[in-house]
Amino acid sequence: MQLPAFRNEPLTDFSKPEQQQAFAKALATIEQGLGRTWPSWIGGEEVVAKETFDNHDPGEVSRRIGRYQKLTADDGKRAVEAAHAAFPAWAERPMAQRTEIFFATARKLRERKHLFSAMLVFEVGKSWAEADADTAEAIDFLDYYAGLAVRLAQPQPVTPVPGERNQMLYIPLGVGVVIPPWNFPLAICVGMTAAALVTGNTVVLKPASQSPAIAGMFVELLYECGLPRPVLNFVTGPGSVLGAALVQHKLTRFISFTGSRDTGLWIFEQASKTQPGQIWLKRLVAEMGGKDSILIDQECNLDAAVDAVVASAFGYQGQKCSACSRAIVHQQVYDEFLKRLLPKVQALKQGHPKDRGNAIGPVVDASSKNKTLEYIDIGRKEGRLLTGGGVAPGNGYYVQPTVIADVPPKARISQEEIFGPVLAVIKVQDFAQGLEVANNTEYGLTGSVYTTNDQHKELAKQRFHVGNFYINRKCTGALVGGHPFGGFNMSGTDSKAGGPDYLLQFVQAKTVSEKVG
Ligand code: NDP
User: Fold this and answer.
1) What is the dihedral of CA 72, 73, 75, 79, to 10 degrees?
2) CA 191/CA 480 separation, integer angstroms
């Protein structure tokens, strides 16, 4: 099979009036259809539960996004069993047939990309540009993993042994439970689900409760593009009940999780407990939190560093695992850095993200707003509040972009993941101390340095202990294929999503040796 070379989906140029009109039209179409009641799907059948739950637009809480089935632990068990029953037929499908479904889904998603992005604007409060990037990444994951799966099905290199014909084949694992977060509710959900399915596994997908509608749109798209329904079971409901039952089921072969450190650790522990009748060790792919830093050296392009900090700290309101939540700044440029940073933060326009001019929207829900405000209060005591610090107007969960300076390296706001628009600025004596501070949390996801000093670049390359390390570039915005993504330590199992080895986590290798002659 001849594959086209992989190319990242280009981002939409919203300075063009025709793109603005197209996106406004998509927003109007999606807004009109909001409030729909979504079914779950188990074993190819629509499932309706006794109880339902709703979610609302975080930027305008009177707007209901949808109503979903609140499934129970028993429903979860049925979903795993249905996926188990569908496994043998799906696993035996020739790879070319499986991959074609995912290439076709990528094409259809490209055609309808503004509709999906518009849903992201309403459901989780993404600006136009952030929503467009999320959808572009989802298209990339579909194309990239389908291409990788084709290569995985080719003969693998083994050393010849005289008198034998030897092969190593990759075969699927079984039932995978896929549990994504709400902050990239399309891209991460698509990437995790597509990787598990294209390699021949069957899946039970449980989206985050803040973002089931966009996940439902993706599931419907896969069905439309020919995925047999029993192969992908879609279940909605509380993670602590439904998600837990999926993780604990004896027929669950692997769990692919992206979310917080605490949930990840709980799943890690549960996955290690064998259930009566379980005949395998469950595999866990877990991508968890971050506390990411940009280290700014004395010798650097300071304006570029300031722009990178603003983009990485406040893009999508700081709700990215890769967000810069700490700027670590050399004492020689510290005051100048703050002087240049402040007007740029204060110029960020905040409001409902359906208006193109609003760069900053709401945080995702009430608990996120309260948590962020609590951390700001802690930060007021630990450092010096420079700007922000409160709520912003609007009938939603708006928290002002906030900068707290003079933060000690071991302060709580320097150590704990806040997941909101809060930046801590830390002063260091020299570059070496900056590196020590950069490594002083339990996380290890992303980080950048801004420096023009080649020795410092080399030193940081060796010592800055993160899965995704950048030089003179912001610490968010990893591209599928170009920046395989995943972190160290409490940031997870370093899965390197969007990288050449990612699919190996969803297969097992079988060696076949035949005596000949
Ligand atoms: P959570 O851990 O709260 O939730 C993630 C998912 O886990 C949700 O689908 C949730 O369901 C589910 N869940 C919750 N409890 C359980 C349980 N006991 N058993 C099984 N599933 C459960 O994370 P968030 O959704 O708040 O996502 C934000 C976090 O994700 C941040 O920490 C961020 O850093 C991290 N993240 C990491 C990335 C990485 O690549 N390292 C990328 C993106 C985000 P429900 O919503 O129903 O509770």
Assistant:
1) 140
2) 10
CB-CB neighbours of 467 under 10 Å: 25
Q: How many residues are recorded in the chain? A: 517
In angstroms, rounded to a whole number, what is the distance separating the alpha carbons of residues 312 and 348?
Answer: 13
Q: 20 alpha carbon to ligand 1 midpoint, in Å?
A: 33
141 close to 498: Cβ distance less than 8 angstroms:
yes
Instruction: Give me the pLDDT at residue 453, please.
Output: 98
467 in ligand 1 pocket by Cβ < 6 Å? no
| Residues in the chain where the model's pLDDT stays below 50 | none
Please choose from 71, 134, 177, 183 the residue to mutate so as to test ligand 1's pocket, defined by most ligand atoms within 8 A of CB: 183
Q: Is the Cβ–Cβ distance between 142 and 105 less than 8 Å?
A: yes
Q: CA-based angle 39:42:44, to the nearest 5?
A: 95
- For residue 290 and ligand 1, the question of a CB distance below 6 A is answered with yes
Measuring CA to CA, how many Å separate 451 from each of 291, 299, 373? 21, 6, 33
Residue 2 is predicted with a pLDDT of 62
pTM listed for this prediction: 0.98
Phi, psi (5° rounding) for residue 321?
-60, -25
Any atom of ligand 1 within 6 Å of the Cβ of 315: no
Phi-psi region of 174 (alpha: psi -120 to 50; beta: other; left: phi over 0): left
Longest dimension (CA), the chain: 81
The catalytic residue among 287, 324, 382, 475 is 287
- pLDDT value at position 285? 98
Q: With contact defined as beta carbons under 8 Å apart, do 204 and 235 qualify?
A: yes
Angle, in degrees to the nearest 10, between helices 128-152 and 187-198: 10
Residue 175: strand, helix, or coil: strand
Q: Pseudo-torsion of CA 337, 435, 404, 131, nearest 10°?
A: 90
Secondary structure (H, E, C), 384-434: EEEECCCECCCCCCCECCEEEECCCCCCHHHHCCCCCCEEEEEEECCHHHH
Q: Which long-range contacts (CB under 8 A, 24 or more apart) does 14-20 make?
A: 14/128, 14/129, 14/132, 14/356, 20/356
Residue type, 46: E
d(CA 390, CA 261): 26
Of 440, 404, 409, the residue nearest 420 (C-alpha)? 404
pLDDT of residue 517: 81
- Amino acid, res. 459: L
3-state secondary structure of 207: coil
Residues 6+ apart with CB under 8 A from 186: 116, 120, 134, 135, 137, 138, 214, 215, 218
